[in-house]
Backbone:
């Protein structure tokens, strides 16, 4: 690492969200990036391509997104902190290897700078349409952690958090940003390296012979080893026992796969991050995330000017979803308003948790630009009707 | 062996070689996960022979066992990783090479070997195969080619010979297969060899050379699948397939790779076709000096 180009660019910067995510990854210790160019995530790759060689890391442009995530998973088992970045079509291509990451409990970070879909859709324009794909996109059952930055600063901060969560819970973590946040340029403050909390890899303290790669500790997470350390581990996407050996049976499935959900569910209170404003006496709460949280601001100001009691609940973690908090709020608010740049995704979670105790109003948007504040205001009025 | 007087009543100590060939001590002990045996492969399958050759090659390579990492995809050969007592990774279908790419580049001290089948490496993983060869990544790829998808019950592969029958080419294959050695050679592989499951010693030697090679090294192994390929094509037993290899293989080192096509029950050219030196991916990455940032 040269002093002229350190891993952590401490200071104040004017940078876009994509570049801030790349800088967050470098600050978190990411030293491997496998990617494939795709708008609007390409700037993440470009930044990593420029920066990683000087830090002794590896940037490789793979032949497609399937290979990108495959290489990232391999790099993790080689001992690196590793990341890829993509958008809609590439996110779809990554789903199978993402499942391998969950099944083999491989820490890594996947940045999805969301654009409008389906298919090629709106390559250069915003969407928030992959939120349910983030939760359910790969086949089978597993727990998910997905973070939603609303600014370039948060792209930096939450990419570090994503690495920390991936190491803590030993699984891929998704940074679900969007085209507007990815391409907006704002002030980003990068703290001194020693002020950044980093979670190291959870390595076993047991010697070879006594270590069992999928024997979980009390928090349901098994400690890890790296290839080449003499443990002669076996890692497979097949259902496996504590030794990591394939065991394609119902009993082993029953003790392996539920843990993949439960390690997130049982630790949800430690993972969930929210930002709330004026929810204590609110009659209506706007539940929002990413760029939509910022677009909702003028609508909320206008509503308050009219005397409406409006609170905001911004999802910083979309997954795990803050079920407890929405349930608690639903007991005393009249309604929730959920603006999102899709035709209804996270709204189903709000509705599920509200369970009829409060109205849930979706303010949909098919993508391509952001909501008109008037539409969100109308949603608030409907929730109070 | 001379012994002092008075000890003749003791049985002579057994020769070292005999000692290991008892039920308790198989010569491949130490490199196989015995606690996972018996394996899933059919009787007369060629994959076991390939594993046998590979274990010998690991020992003969001079590379410390702890440095090996084996990566497989999905399929019959995809199960190889799970039986080798080395760091081993059983990945998604076709994606062993990308996974191996990340493993190798993040930890170049490892000797990363991809061990998978023709369907996995050449069909669904074909794009990764050609790009890894093009990059000249320092990987060893062992491709067991049995001309068919075995795990799923005998379907058409991109290596199935023209006119051969499979469950999804029941009237005979109307597609031309890949000439796999030519494919990887044309993309830049630095070592390319083809042997069959019959050529155990030469296969072992090829694996050793491939693993000692700095660069993308590829060994194709033609292997019998009597359960599916031979049965669908009325070619007899595993023995008959091995006899066919014996009678119909022609060793031609340095053969023009354009001439390595395999037809239905045609002559099979085997040998070492490519063995050259050129900078690897990491050589080039590091050779350019510090980045111009």
Residues:
């Amino acid at each position: 690492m040269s002093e002229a180009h350190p891993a952590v660019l401490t200071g104040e910067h004017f940078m876009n969200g994509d570049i801030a995510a790349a800088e967050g990854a470098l600050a978190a210790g990411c030293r491997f990036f496998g990617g494939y160019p795709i708008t609007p995530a390409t700037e993440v790759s470009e930044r990593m391509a420029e920066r990683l060689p000087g830090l002794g890391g590896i940037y490789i442009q793979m032949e497609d997104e399937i290979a990108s995530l495959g290489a990232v998973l391999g790099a993790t088992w080689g001992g690196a902190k590793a990341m890829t970045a993509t958008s809609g079509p590439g996110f779809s291509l990554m789903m199978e290897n993402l499942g391998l990451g969950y099944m083999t409990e491989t820490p890594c970070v996947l940045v999805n700078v969301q654009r409008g879909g389906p298919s090629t859709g709106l390559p250069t324009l915003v969407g928030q349409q992959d939120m349910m794909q983030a939760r359910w996109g790969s086949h089978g059952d597993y727990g998910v952690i997905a973070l939603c930055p609303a600014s370039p600063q948060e792209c930096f901060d939450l990419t570090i958090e994503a690495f920390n969560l991936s190491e803590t819970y030993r699984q891929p973590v998704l940074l679900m940003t969007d085209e507007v946040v990815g391409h907006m340029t704002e002030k980003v403050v990068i703290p001194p390296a020693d002020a950044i909390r980093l979670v190291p890899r959870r390595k076993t303290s047991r010697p070879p012979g006594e270590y069992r790669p999928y024997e979980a500790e009390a928090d349901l997470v098994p400690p890890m080893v790296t290839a080449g350390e003499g443990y002669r581990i076996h890692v497979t996407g097949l259902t496996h026992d504590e030794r990591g050996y394939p065991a394609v049976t119902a009993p082993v499935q029953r003790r392996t796969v539920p843990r993949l959900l439960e390690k997130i569910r049982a630790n949800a209170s430690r993972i969930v991050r929210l930002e709330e404003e004026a929810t204590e006496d609110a009659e209506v709460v706007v539940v929002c995330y990413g760029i939509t949280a910022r677009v909702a601001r003028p609508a909320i100001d206008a509503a308050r000017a009219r005397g409406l009691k409006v609170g905001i609940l911004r999802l910083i973690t979309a997954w795990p979803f803050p079920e407890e908090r929405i349930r608690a709020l639903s007991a005393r608010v009249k309604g929730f308003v959920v603006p999102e740049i899709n035709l209804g995704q996270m709204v189903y979670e709000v509705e599920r948790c509200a369970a009829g105790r409060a109205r849930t109003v979706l303010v949909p948007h098919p993508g391509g630009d952001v909501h008109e504040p008037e539409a969100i205001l109308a949603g608030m009025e409907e929730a109070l009707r | 062996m001379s012994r002092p007087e008075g000890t003749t009543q003791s049985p002579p100590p057994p020769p070292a070689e005999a000692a290991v060939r008892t039920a308790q001590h198989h010569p491949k002990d130490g490199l196989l996960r015995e606690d996972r045996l018996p394996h899933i492969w059919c009787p007369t399958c060629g994959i076991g022979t390939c594993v046998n050759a590979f274990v010998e090659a690991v020992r003969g390579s001079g590379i410390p066992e702890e440095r090996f990492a084996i990566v497989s995809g999905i399929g019959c050969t995809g199960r190889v990783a799970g039986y080798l007592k080395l760091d081993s990774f059983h990945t998604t279908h076709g994606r062993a090479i990308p996974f191996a790419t990340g493993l190798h580049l993040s930890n170049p001290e490892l000797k990363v070997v991809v061990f998978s089948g023709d369907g996995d490496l050449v069909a669904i993983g074909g794009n990764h195969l050609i790009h890894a060869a093009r990059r000249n990544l320092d990987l060893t790829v062992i491709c067991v080619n049995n001309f068919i998808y075995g795990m799923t019950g005998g379907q058409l592969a991109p290596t199935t010979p023209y006119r051969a029958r499979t469950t999804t080419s029941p009237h005979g294959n109307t597609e031309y297969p890949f000439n796999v050695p030519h494919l990887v050679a044309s993309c830049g592989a630095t070592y390319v060899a083809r042997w069959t499951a019959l050529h155990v010693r030469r296969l072992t030697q090829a694996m050793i050379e491939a693993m000692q090679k700095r660069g993308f090294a590829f060994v194709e192994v033609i292997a019998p699948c009597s359960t599916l390929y031979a049965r669908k094509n009325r070619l007899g037993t595993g023995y008959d397939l091995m006899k066919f290899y014996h009678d119909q293989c022609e060793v031609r080192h340095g053969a023009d790779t354009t001439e390595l096509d395999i037809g239905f029950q045609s002559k099979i050219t085997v040998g070492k076709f490519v063995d050259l030196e050129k900078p690897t991916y990491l050589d080039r990455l590091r050779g350019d000096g510090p980045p111009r940032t």
